[in-house]
Each structure stands twice: as C-alpha cells, then as structure tokens.
Design goal:
Elements: E1 3-14, E2 18-23, E3 26-32, H1 34-38, E4 48-54, E5 60-66
Parallel strand pairs: 3-5
Antiparallel strand pairs: 1-2, 1-4, 2-3, 4-5
Length: about 70
Amino acid sequence: MEERQVEGVVEAQLPSGLYRVEIAGSRVTAHVGGGAGRNFIRVLVGDRVVVELTARDLTRGRIVRKL
C-alpha cells in the first residue's frame, strides 16, 4: 500500500500516546512511529513534524520525524 509523507504542526497531545496534527487546514490523529518512539524523541505542542498517511484512511497517521 502506498504511503505519503506530509508536514504538519502538533496541535494537541491526546491520551494513549496520540497527537492531533494540523496539516494544510485539516486535522489528523497520529501516533509516534517505531524509530522515534524507541529513541525517546519528545513531541511537544507546536512542533513541526512529518506525518506518514496511508491511502486508506487520511485521518490517521504516524509521526516519522520531528523537524
């Protein structure tokens, strides 16, 4: 399945390790991906991040990198 990466800004930290990320006027619920999670990268509100979205569900994603 094809995945695409887009840049966004973290709006809020949600329960269960989820984040609300704003991408070009729309909101996505995302979790921290494996590499970033294993290396204890802290994601804070206001951070610019790269989110990986699948073609199946564009409202959920994975944070793969912090900018």
